[in-house]
């Protein structure tokens, strides 16, 4: 799994857990639908911190909470295929 896939899975998982669609998340976060689609469909391998912050806030999380999960914590940037 690469860096972008980790974020895509995180966003999909949090939306599913909260019962919201990706489209609803875009509206709630004020992040363009195309930007979120690019993240969750793997076209954006390294999402920007501003968009991640907006997404986290829309999900009632701090950015630190959003970024603190097992898959990301275990990921080594040295192993990233996209770099």
Q: How would the blueprint of this fold be written?
A:
Layout: H1 3-18, H2 22-29, H3 33-40, H4 49-58, H5 63-67, H6 70-74
Helix pairs in contact: 2-4
CATH fold-level assignment? 434 Repressor (Amino-terminal Domain)
Low-confidence stretches: none
Question: Would you tell me the overall average pLDDT?
Answer: 90
SSE sequence, one letter per element = HHHHHH
Largest sheet: none
List keywords for this structure.
83 residues, mainly alpha, 434 Repressor (Amino-terminal Domain), 63% helix, globular
Can you give a write-up of this model?
- The protein is mostly helical and 83 residues long.
- It has one domain: lambda repressor-like DNA-binding domains (434 Repressor (Amino-terminal Domain)).
- Helices cover 63% and strands 0% of the residues.
- The chain contains 6 helices and no strands.
- α2 (22-29) packs across α4.
- The longest helix has 16 residues, at 3-18.
- The model has no long low-confidence stretch (mean pLDDT 90).
């Amino acid at each position: 799994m690469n860096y972008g896939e980790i974020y895509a899975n995180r966003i999909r998982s949090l939306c599913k857990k909260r019962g919201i669609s990706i489209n609803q998340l875009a509206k709630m976060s004020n992040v363009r639908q195309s930007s979120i689609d690019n993240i969750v469909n793997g076209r954006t391998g390294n999402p920007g911190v501003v968009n991640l912050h907006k997404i986290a806030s829309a999900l009632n999380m701090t950015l630190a909470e959003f970024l603190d999960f097992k898959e990301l914590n275990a990921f080594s940037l040295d192993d990233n295929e996209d770099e």
